[in-house]
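Is this the right way to post structure tokens for a design question? Let me know if I should format differently. Anyway, here goes:
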């Protein structure tokens, strides 16, 4: 449910179906894909945070971080995290990536750092990866590498403890 009216499963299914066709649109037809998303977003009530979120995703996915960033901000300001905690977290990850792409990596770091302490979900590694990229853009490569190694360690068939320790050692002060 979003302010102004419900978002039903049919709408969500149609959005999912639209995104499933994304690869059918070559770069020169990206505007056609964005039009599909715009039509779906236009069905939502005024003030819905889902509309700017979906539009932001479409701009972002077609290489326009500069157009996506304000829409992600609008979606978050309109309460996207309250409507869908998952989509709210995705918006923060994607906004931080867009901010990095437009030269505002410091803002991306500020946005994602609190997400390191958020409730754990399947987006944890994406948080760390995007935060690592933002940190690297700021010349803080050791911190970024530490995050990536820490995210990778649990997925390894062996060496989990070693990699986790190495990740910590990259950012801990030397004795």
């Amino acid at each position: 449910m979003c302010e102004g009216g419900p978002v039903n499963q049919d709408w969500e299914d149609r959005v999912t179906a639209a995104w499933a066709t994304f690869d059918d649109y070559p770069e020169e037809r990206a505007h056609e894909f964005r039009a599909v998303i715009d039509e779906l977003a236009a069905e939502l009530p005024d003030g819905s945070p889902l509309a700017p979120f979906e539009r932001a995703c479409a701009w972002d996915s077609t290489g326009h971080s500069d157009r996506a960033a304000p829409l992600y901000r609008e979606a978050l300001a309109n309460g996207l995290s309250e409507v869908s905690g998952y989509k709210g977290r995705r918006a923060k990850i994607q906004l931080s990536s867009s901010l990095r792409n437009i030269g505002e990596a410091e803002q991306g770091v500020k946005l994602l750092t609190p997400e390191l302490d958020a409730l754990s979900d399947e987006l944890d590694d994406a948080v760390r990866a995007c935060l690592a990229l933002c940190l690297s853009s700021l010349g803080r490569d050791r911190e970024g590498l530490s995050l990536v190694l820490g995210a990778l360690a649990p997925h390894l068939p062996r060496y989990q403890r070693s990699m986790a320790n190495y990740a910590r050692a990259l950012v801990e002060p030397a004795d």
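Format looks fine. Someone answered above. Worth noting: The chain has ten helices and no strands. The CA atoms of residues 23 and 117 lie 34 Å apart.
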